[in-house]
Design brief:
Length: 593
Amino acid sequence: MAAQFGRRLRKGVTTTAVAAAAVAALAASQAPGATTDGQGGQTTSDATPSSEEAADAGATGNSPYYTDLPPLNSPNPAPSASTGTDTSGVTEAGIPATVLDAYKRAEATLREKKPGCNLPWQLLAAIGKVESGQARGGRVDADGTTLSPILGPQLDGNGFALIKDTDNGAYDGNSSYDQAVGPMQFIPSTWEWAGRDGNGDGREDPNNIYDAALAAGHYLCRNGWDLSDQRDLDRAILSYNQSTEYLNTVMSWLEYYRRGTHEIPDGTGTLPRDRSDSTGTVRPSPTAPSTPPSTSPSPKPSPKPEKPADSGTPNTPPPTTTPPTTPPTTPPTPTDTVDHLENAGTAQFTAMAGDAFTERMSARAETDAGKAVAKVRIRFTVISDTDTTFTGGESVATVVTDSSGVAVAPALQAGEKTGSVIVQATVVGRTVKGVAYRATVTERAADTLVRTSTKELTCTPGGEFADAVELKATYKGAVADKVAATATLIKSAEDPTENDKGPYFKDADGKAVRTLSGLPTDADGLLKLPQLYADDTEGTFLLRVTTPGGATVTIELTVAAPPTETEPPAETENPAETETPAPSDSPSASPTT
């Protein structure tokens, strides 16, 4: 490949030539708060990204990448060993089956979710080639997870960016500095907000090509970029790694894959050889061809993955002077040692609708021998039809285990829907036995109801009560808001069944009803009942109001005719004075005869 480097650069880079000054300006514009130093180099503020639009260090933290360029010949013609045709184009155009499927699936998802982005899967393939050689030639399992972790060098400022640990080593196994992780080489702080579940297994694993490809697609499609526009395409690529050389290398592979590619078996892809951090590697220039790299060994060669033997000469032994190389073994991360999770807290979780749960869920990561494992990321996921979430409104929370191997989830916040809630705890990056927690959301309750007035409630037959019934609900002395009360006109204090005569409410159609349910208290715990009416029956009646939680109040209602006014006795005139007849023995005049 080295012998062709100059020829390929002269021809390949012309398809992606971008003026150095313009590209530098684009690179400097990708990070929020970006400025330039005295030599035109980029610097960024120390602000922590607050959303998907913030990516101070790019997706990769500007980690090293593979600088190999594609062959000059088209990837389309079939190889012909008998005619001596250069088959490098066909070989390089082959993409491992699972890896290729992940790129195409991510493109299909983004076509639906963000149609204005116009993301081509070939761009993901180009970045995947440059970042990890297509997941080290397709060394992935059936689910798309790499057979061994793919880690960039630690970003300790020694020849690389300085990014101190942001994930307690959960993703990269390094608790001092961050390292780019997985086939698309995300740094942990970027993966934290950019990570996606691309294969539907409920996990967001940067070591899984489906998850990483979908995350890369979303990352490239943020900021409203349209990748069919060259300027936006340049911006997106530069946001992944802020290097003009990186932009040109990715664009070369993008154009190459656009001319044709094909599927090959997993694990058989060709592996890159040259890296941007290798002292003997000549990097592509945006303006002029480079001198072919020296074929002599580099003073400090970077580790290179083992390159598969040429399939065309299976019987040819390797040169005896060159010992076979062995891929460096990566020490197991804390996550690799986890065998299962255990419940580290209570098993009972109950809260009233609208309240925070007082108990918090906790899980303990253990080895198969029962030893605690620290620095493991545990994902807690709320699974239910209720609107219960963690504090802050999220349904997923990821917590790193402490020195005792325990991760404590954020407090659960009950929503308004009552019922059962399941919270599942799993290990990020592993498929091991997890823990399922069951929680219950009960309806809002009150334990006390009192009238806000002591005025008697009276009404005449066939009339309506002049005063409304108003109550206040409390629970353990605090205001009980949004509690659903039930009001019933009952037969007697001993018989709480609904009365069939006396006072009543009216429904929406104006018909008499004597039971109303679901009457909510307001934010102050107050409940004002609807208008009460009376039929023609006189007497004393009872209204009973109850709530969940046991609050009960019984109120007397009186229906009586108004007192009748009695007419005062009629006045009699004084009798006229009359002469009193004389007694019979008194002398009197004789009648005239």
